[in-house]
Amino acid sequence: MRYEYSVINDLYGTETAERQPKRESSLGLFIVLALAGMFLYESVHPVMRLQSEPPPLFLKGTSARHAMKSGYLDAVARSYWGVATNSVSAKYSYGQLLPSNPPADFTTTVSDDYATRDLYWQRLRGLWNQPEVWVRSYYLDTGWIDSALGSLGKVVRNYLNG
């Protein structure tokens, strides 16, 4: 390799193209981006939750006789919807079929008679698998890191002990 001396390069402290350090490949950047992508893929999970507000079909009155008590029925319906969002959605996920009879914990303090309970349970069953009553959200779960490190620790201990 031939080196040519240049007064200008010497004066300004620059080097010729042959003597400049070579730029490293972007392999390191690719590895970092791949690890970040794998971390996000393993850590971010979608979850379907019932809407906080009951849909209009769940709130509808059953007859003209109940129209006078619509305020009371609205409170009862909202109470049963709250039970559905808190306890029923914890047991049954989106896409599952609900049983034909309401579970024992599908009850409210506002109204506890069987007919009302069954009415709102059947309405809930009719709406359960409709995507418009569900909201998709995402949550970050890094618990897989602890389990992976625990497994790695077991492997290292077994290797060192045996």
Protein described:
The protein has 162 residues and is mainly alpha-helical. The protein has one domain (1-142). The chain is 51% helix and 9% strand. The protein is built from 6 helices and 2 strands, in the order ααβαααβα. The protein has helices spanning 7-12, 27-43, 56-59, 70-91, 114-127, 143-161, and strands spanning 44-50, 134-140. Strands 1-2 form a two-stranded antiparallel sheet. Helix 4 (70-91) crosses helix 5 (114-127). The longest helix has 22 residues, at 70-91. It is elongated, with a radius of gyration of 32 Å. Mean pLDDT is 83; it is low at 62-68.
Largest sheet: number of strands, sense, barrel closure: 2 strands, antiparallel
The proportion of residues forming helix, as a percent range, comes to: 40-55%
Number of helices: 6
Task: Kindly estimate the percentage of residues that lie in beta strands according to DSSP.
Answer: 5-15%
The mean pLDDT is: 83
Q: Within the largest sheet, what's the order of strands?
A: 1-2
Secondary-structure element string: HHEHHHEH
Number of domains: 1
Gyration radius from CA atoms, angstroms: 32 Å
Computed structural class: mainly alpha
Low-confidence stretches: 62-68
Number of strands: 2
End-to-end distance: 55 Å
Which descriptor suits the 3D outline?
A: elongated
